[in-house]
Amino acid sequence: NHVLAGNDYLADYAKRFNPKVEVIPTVIDTERYVPHATAPRADGPAPAAAIKRCGVQLYTIRGEMEKGVEAALARVAAIGFKEVEFAGYFGRTPTQIAAALKANGLTAPSLHIPVAMILKDPNAMLDSMETIGHKFAIMPYLDANERKTLDQYKKVADQLNEAGALTKQRGIQMAYHNHDFEFETLEGEVPYDLFLARCDKDLVHFELDLFWANKAKRDPLAYFAKHPGRFPCVHVKDMTADGTMTEVGAGRIPFAQYFAKASQAGIKHYFVEHDNPKDPYASITASFKALSAL
Q1: Which of 15, 34, 110, 183 has its CA at 20 to 30 Å from residue 102's CA atom?
Q2: Would you say 247 and 290 are in contact if contact means Cβ atoms under 8 Å apart?
Q3: Closest CA to 212 of 241, 163, 187, 179
Q4: pLDDT surpassing 70 at residue 18
Q5: Strands 27-29 and 2-4, sheet pairing
Q6: How far is the CA of 291 from the CAs of 49, 92, 179, in angstroms?
Q7: Cα torsion for 133, 166, 153, 32, to the nearest 10°?
């Protein structure tokens, strides 16, 4: 019950985008916490939360993407997804990615990309995003060496603001995706709260990962209420009673309760994900069915 969050995750970006980033192996123990949500799951549809365009984070099927991007996207579309979120292009050009999306009736509202890559060559990266049609550029993860002190978190927030000013010129929104470590108190402060306070509300939004928020025993509804409109995207993956990641609908996270507040939160895009599924296509199929039923 461990998820490789350093070497596994960032090495993929080094391979796909070739960023000059040192990757430090980091193991996240998925048994540290009990799920935050203890209320029974709500039955039936949640009011004002109909999800008509279910999305998937393609990191879930990264092995299949490596085998063939076009075939993988076709399979994703056949399952019923309308939106995808990229975590690398697997050697394809932006034009090829755009063509593959169009051929399968898909759109790609967002991309996971290290903020350093945007700042290093903003014009090239933003040109690629425009070609594909991305509307969100999302910082996916912080390496262990980038989050040892509060000052480092402040530096990242400033970088997000800088990148956000650049992306905004192209009509693209900068955002940040969380894990659980951002909620751990550091030097008397909660880094995630620091991000929300230090990042410009117009330049930087947030993609709340509902699994990791629950892992950290944080209530998404409290964040929605305190920071309305700042969460245009969410990652949707479930948690069993022992804290293990599982497919949507197979765990105990009360998604219907969260999505009933979609308007308050500002949620526009819902991406199912599983970091290490046994069967990637079976995983996203199960999650698609459960998310569609909400």
Answers
A1: 15
A2: yes
A3: 179
A4: no
A5: antiparallel
A6: 11, 30, 21
A7: 0
Provide the sign of the torsion angle of the four alpha carbons 114, 118, 121, 123, taken in this order.
positive
Whole-angstrom distance, CA of residue 159 vs CA of residue 265: 24
Q: How confident is the model at residue 13 (pLDDT cuts 50, 70, 90)?
A: low
Whole-number Å distance between alpha carbons of 128 and 172: 12
Closest CA to 33 of 215, 159, 197, 211: 215
At residue 15, the pLDDT reads 65
**List of residues 6+ apart from 125 with CB closer than 8 A:** 113, 117, 118, 137
CA separation for the pair 28, 147 (Å, rounded): 15
CA distance 40 to 58: 30
CB 212 within 8 A of CB 178: yes
DSSP H helix total and E strand total for the chain: 13, 12
What span, in angstroms and rounded, lies between the C-alpha atoms of 143 and 110? 21
- pLDDT given for residue 39 in this prediction: 40
pLDDT single digits (tens) 92-146: 999 999 999 999 999 999 999 999 999 999 999 999 999 999 999 999 999 999 9
The rounded distance, in Å, linking the Cα atoms of 234 and 211 is 10
Band (52; pLDDT cuts 50, 70, 90): confident
* Residues 99, 102: Cα–Cα separation, whole Å: 5
Residue 3: phi and psi, rounded to 5, are: -110, 125
Instruction: Supply the DSSP symbol for 142.
Output: -
Q: Tell me 212's DSSP state.
A: H
- C-beta neighbour count of 53 within 10 angstroms: 12
